[in-house]
Amino acid sequence: MGSGSVPHPMPRPPRPHPMSSPPRQRASRRVRQRRILGLLFLLYIGTLAMIVFWSSPIDQDSAGVLRMLLRQLHGVGVPGWVDYSFVETIANVLMFVPFGVLAAAWLDKGRIWMAAVVGIAASCGIEAAQAMMLPNRFATIYDVTANSLGASLGCIAVYAWYSRSRRNSPLDRS
After folding, report:
1. pLDDT band at 29 (very low <50, low <70, confident <90, very high)
2. Largest CA distance in the chain
3. Structure confidence at residue 172 (pLDDT)
4. How many CB atoms lie within 10 A of CB 92?
5. For residues 12 and 15, what is the distance between their CA atoms, to the nearest angstrom?
6. Gap between the Cα atoms of 143 and 123, Å rounded
7. Which of 55, 166, 51 lies closest to 112 in space, CA to CA?
8. What is the pTM of this model?
9. Cα separation of 166 and 158, whole Å?
10. In whole angstroms, how large is the CA radius of gyration of the chain?
11. Quick one: how far is CA 24 from the chain centroid?
């Protein structure tokens, strides 16, 4: 440089929108979220495996209590179609909702549907394994249907959450 030259300043990178975090910070937050979701999913899968691969039906010891409770409920006006089979089906649906929620939340937003597909495949695999390996368990298409519904409802809940969050985001209202 000569004695009279002034150095040109380096051009500054564009400033991010004040409501958004830098890409690196967002990426590291998503990585942390996925790690936590992965850990929760593994804990859930471990619990689910204990329930579905128990040598006898998990509700075997409490079936009499549940039937007695249902008789009392029927006596005070609960409809007769709310029976043991109905309660068992609802339990199967509810047992797989966390599958759909955790798997869908772990996946990218555009692939949430894959969690439902994996949930359905897992349910089919569980029922097939019960039929082949556990003589005291009863594998049924009704259980596959209920489990699949639960996983799908979990995915729908995550999709609805993401859609609502995106719609209410201050960045989307500009």
Report:
1. confident
2. 101
3. 46
4. 21
5. 8
6. 8
7. 166
8. 0.72
9. 12
10. 25
11. 27
